[in-house]
Design brief:
Distance between the termini: 26 Å
Number of strands: 8
CATH class: Alpha Beta
Number of domains: 1
Number of helices: 10
CATH architecture: 3-Layer(aba) Sandwich
Structural class: alpha/beta
Radius of gyration: 17 Å
Strand content: 15-25%
Mean pLDDT: 98
Helix content: 40-55%
Length: about 280
């Protein structure tokens, strides 16, 4: 097991961890977390014979808090830089939330010559923002409110957001304090400018053309009670745009289902990787 950093063309240091041996799986995390959010999946896959690689998005976790490149093109190119620096081939690309957008944009910009499969979990594509072309989307006021709360008191905002992220605000929810605390911890590692600019990236980017370019087996996974990325405006539409996409929907599951339904998600992920 190892970890390290790579330096991108614009001088950004990207932290990554690289565990295990076998077919390689990469992981792209959600906003505003870090690669640590994937540890529950990564350790499981290492124990099942896979090599796993996850990086901290620029401005997040242990990567540089750079001023530029806080957009989907920048994120996708950073993923490409990691894949190329480690010379990964036949990789299975997994992305959660914003990370799902990163995977889609990576394929849109860099193709699938190094990609064997893709997995989009509670992912933001095709586009979150409401418009005449996307009437089911979320209005701009939602994202403006996030930016305002982030600027005013980011620490409290992240604590409040965690309850929605993991569905802890639902009657009968069984979400540990530890899960909520780790969300806050990882979020506070992100640079404020990076987190602020990322809201525009994950909410306003249109991934429609990227999704149409995905020509490898793809699994779309989403919680049906996702309060952050509503399922009907994301996974359901995404699956229609990717030829032959497989879909798994989890009744009552929240946005952060990789933690709250870790064992089930891991089992479904493993079955797809082995298929």
């Amino acid at each position: 097991m190892s970890s390290g950093t790579i330096t991108t063309k614009d001088g950004t240091e990207i932290y990554y961890k690289d565990w295990g041996e076998g077919p390689v799986v990469t992981f792209s995390h959600g906003w505003p977390l870090s690669s640590d959010a994937w540890d529950g999946q990564m350790l499981f896959l290492v124990h099942n014979g896979f090599r796993v690689v996850a990086h901290d998005r620029r401005g997040h976790g242990r990567s540089s808090q750079v001023s530029s490149g806080n957009d989907m093109d920048g994120y996708a190119d950073d993923l490409a830089a990691v894949i190329e620096a480690l010379d990964l081939k036949d990789a299975i690309l997994v992305g959660h939330s914003t990370g799902g957008g990163e995977v889609a944009r990576y394929i849109g910009r860099h193709g699938t010559k190094r990609v064997a499969k893709a997995v989009l979990i509670a992912a933001v594509p095709p586009i979150m923002l409401k418009s005449a072309a996307n009437p089911e989307g979320l209005p701009m006021e939602v994202f403006d409110s996030m930016r305002s709360s982030l600027t005013k008191d980011r620490s409290q905002f992240y604590k409040d957001l965690a309850t929605q992220f993991y569905g802890a605000n639902r009657p009968g929810a069984k979400v540990s304090q530890g899960i909520l605390d780790q969300f806050w911890l990882w979020s506070m590692q992100a640079g404020l400018k990076n987190a602020y600019e990322s809201i525009k990236a994950f909410s306003e980017t249109d991934f429609t053309e990227d999704l149409k370019k995905i020509d490898v087996p793809t699994l779309v996974m989403h919680g049906e009670d996702d309060q952050i990325v509503p399922v009907k405006d994301s996974a359901v539409k995404t699956a229609r745009l990717i030829r032959g996409a497989k879909e798994i929907y989890y009744p009552g599951a929240p946005h952060g289902l990789t933690a709250t339904l870790q064992d089930q998600v891991n089992a479904d992920l493993l079955a797809f990787l082995r298929s």
